[in-house]
Amino acid sequence: MTDIKLVLFDMNDVLCHYDKSARIAHLAKLAGKAPAAIEKAIWGSGFEDEGDAGGLDEVAYLQGFGERIGYPLTVQEWATSLKVAAAPIAGTLALAAAIGKRTRVAVLTNNNLLLRSEIDRIFPDLHSVFGSDFHVSAEFKARKPDREAYRRCLAILNTVPAAALFVDDSAVNVAGAEQAGLIAHRYTDLETLTKRVTELGLLST
Question: Which pTM does this prediction carry?
């Protein structure tokens, strides 16, 4: 049995269903623009990737976001656009809570610094499970699957890679975690993940 001290979860499509099209539609309505224009301005420009990689602080990120969509977003409006696109996955959250009774659990998501500040407004269900152990790639100046994203996150969490299980729906991110020395599991469904963590001794049988 592996001696795992930490289970590190991705957020989007593991702990919540993320509907990007719903977010774009919400932003398009605010800005009075076509959804395709919003998508191109933010996701097609590399802007979101820059935020995820820590190239922008919270103020610069929000300002830049507004400039690109042609609408001066407030923090609350930006957060709401994400909240409408994120539907909690109750089963995975419950599993994480059960694991957390025996083993430390945390989140590592490719995201910007503003999300870290606003996460309780956007996804309030996380706090009761993960507390303050919520981290975004921007903190570490590296995005998954860069090995440094995992290693720098684990350094903050005082866990060596071999003692961490990483759960992500992306095969590329899972491979990156394994290259960084973590044990990794590609999330496809709750049943398969439950079986894996049970085999690893992270749940009562």
Answer: 0.96
CA angle 199, 203, 205 (to 5 degrees): 75
For residues 183, 188, 192 and 194, what is the CA-based torsion angle, rounded to 10 degrees? 70
Measured between its terminal Cα atoms, the distance across the chain in Å is: 14
169 vs 6: CA distance, rounded Å: 18
Please give the structure tokens belonging to residue 38: 């919003």
CA distance 39 to 116: 22
Give the separation between CA 182 and CA 187, rounded to whole angstroms. Answer: 15
List residues bridging with 186 in a β-sheet.
168
pLDDT in tens, the chain (205 residues): 459 999 999 999 999 999 999 999 999 999 999 999 999 999 999 999 999 999 999 999 999 999 999 999 999 999 999 999 999 999 999 999 999 999 999 999 999 999 999 999 999 999 999 999 999 999 999 999 999 999 999 999 999 999 999 999 999 999 999 999 999 999 999 999 999 999 999 996 5
Residues 6+ apart with CB under 8 A from 76: 121
Distance CA 36, CA 75 (A): 23
